[in-house]
Write a structure and sequence with these properties.
It catalyses: GTP + H2O = GDP + phosphate + H(+). The protein is α/β, with parallel strands linked by helices. It is built from 16 helices and 15 strands. The strands form three sheets. It has a seven-stranded parallel β-sheet, sandwiched between helices. Strands 10-14-11-12-13-15 form a six-stranded antiparallel β-sheet, with helices on both faces. The protein binds guanosine-5'-triphosphate.
């Protein structure tokens, strides 16, 4: 990274968590000349007004740009890059801070920025072709920060509130988890409103959901600016890897988390799940499960993996890509060659078909949940019987075009973020 490259910090967090408060504090306290980009969903950018009113952003050193009437993780991605590009060209700033809307997902924002910033060894992507935007060479994504409301966290995780992001519905709990899972620094804000025991428990949950991030407790957004601006925290490779944390969780978690009742475990099976029994279990999934994620093989669906994504009250399933074993030749052999680790994993009869979930919860009864999941797996007898007669209420997904196929190995929940469907299994 050249010395002259301008660091960009992205602030995320659900509505009212304290993003604007953090931003104002940083503007007051930092000695750097900062430019600020504030994104708001409405036509009038209320956040920008707050920042402008309550900070000294009007100083000649600083600049405030508003991106209104849309979301920078969706339709305003091009505008975001253009605005940053403009600021970088001015070269009058030591840093840029972007405040996303409360409904923005940080991963696509970071993706836009890392594609937009010159990654050196990254291939030019379709993004450039689509938008006509040139890679930005004068800045880099420095740190991604998620602000969490310590007071509301537990309630928000269990909430079934649905947020409307310009026509796209998102569950509050789901969004919260996505924001926590993808960041370098977690600001546990509003610590003044909760007791120590609650704080410890919330922090433990955050640690399990996001082991890579630094967690800082704050009151009224009072954080040392150097920890989030020009902090040099973002690592493209690590961020990419952390999205695949299903693998990292293979090891059972240490007792620090257990102390606060936050635990996790991995459930695996090399046999398919019974569509009726598994749908019933998802209908009744225990509230103690804060997060579940992974992929599964459903009896009768031998071609493609299905992903499972549970966050708070939201349960989504999506396309997980074709099993390597179901691919036609020569793709099958090519993928096996490209992913030698599959050989070790390979099952004589079922190839790479499998069920793999990570479950994270508070006061979660491992034994009974494990037993419930095991009950969903086909028995010896069922395994040899006809699977086509089962009632299958799971949505069907179109297999991707062969040309567009992903190079990935074992299907991974995060490789298939698009196309996920909320399942109202209880109909
Ligand atoms: N008690 C307490 N209140 C806080 C703290 N941080 C922020 N607030 C208050 O919480 C409210 C929301 O804070 P904002 O900074 O506007 O939150 P935001 O994340 O920018 O909100 P949106 O822009 O709506 O997404 C304001 O009334 C703040 O004064 C804190 O640490 N403790």
């Amino acid at each position: 990274m050249p010395d002259s490259s301008i660091p960009v910090t992205v602030l995320s967090g659900t509505l009212g968590a304290g993003k604007t408060t953090v931003l104002n504090h940083v503007l007051h306290e930092s000695d750097d000349r900062l430019a600020v980009l504030v994104n708001d969903m409405g036509e009038v950018n209320v956040d920008a007004e707050h920042v402008a009113e309550s900070s000294d952003i009007a100083d000649e050193d600083e600049e405030l740009i508003e991106l209104s009437n849309g979301c920078i993780c969706c339709e305003l991605r091009g505008d975001l890059l253009e605005a940053i590009d403009g600021l970088a060209r001015e070269r009058e700033f030591d840093g840029i801070v972007v405040e996303s809307t409360g409904v923005a997902e940080p991963l696509p924002v970071a993706q836009t920025l890392t594609l937009g910033f010159d990654q050196g060894d990254l291939e030019p992507t379709e993004f450039y072709e689509e938008t006509g935007i040139e890679p930005l060479e004068d800045c880099h994504l420095d740190t991604t920060v998620t602000v969490v409301d310590a007071h509301q966290f537990r309630e928000a995780m269990r909430s079934d509130e649905i947020l409307d992001d310009d026509g796209t519905e998102k569950h509050l709990g789901d969004l919260l988890v996505e924001q926590v899972e993808f960041c370098d620094v977690l600001l546990l804000n509003k610590c003044d409103l909760v007791d120590e025991a609650t704080l410890d428990q919330v922090e433990s949950t955050l640690e399990v959901l996001q082991p890579r991030a630094e967690i800082l407790r704050t009151e009224h957004g009072r954080v040392d600016p150097d920890l989030i601006v020009s902090a040099d925290r973002f690592d493209f490779e690590e961020a990419r890897r952390s999205a695949g944390w299903i693998r990292e969780l293979q090891e059972p978690h240490e007792s620090a988390e257990e102390e606060h009742g936050v635990t996790s475990f991995v459930f695996e099976s090399r046999r398919p799940l019974h569509p009726e029994r598994f749908a019933e279990l998802l209908d009744e999934f225990p509230d103690a499960v804060v997060r579940a994620k992974g992929h599964f093989w459903l009896a009768g669906r031998g071609e493609e993996a299905i992903t499972l994504n549970v966050a708070g009250q939201s349960t989504r399933v999506g396309p997980g890509g074709p099993w390597t074993d179901a691919l036609p030749e020569p793709e099958r052999s090519e993928r096996l060659e490209a992913n030698p680790e599959l050989e070790e994993y390979w099952h004589d009869r079922w190839g790479d078909r499998s069920v793999q979930f990570v479950l994270i919860g508070t006061e979660m009864d491992h034994e009974s949940l494990r037993a419930d999941l095991a009950d969903c797996v086909l028995s010896d007898e069922e395994l040899e019987a006809d699977w086509s007669a089962y009632e299958d209420r799971f949505p069907t997904f179109e297999l991707p075009d062969e040309d567009e196929e992903d190079e990935g190995s074992t299907p991974d929940a995060d490789e298939s973020r698009s196309g996920q469907e909320e399942i109202g299994i209880a109909d």
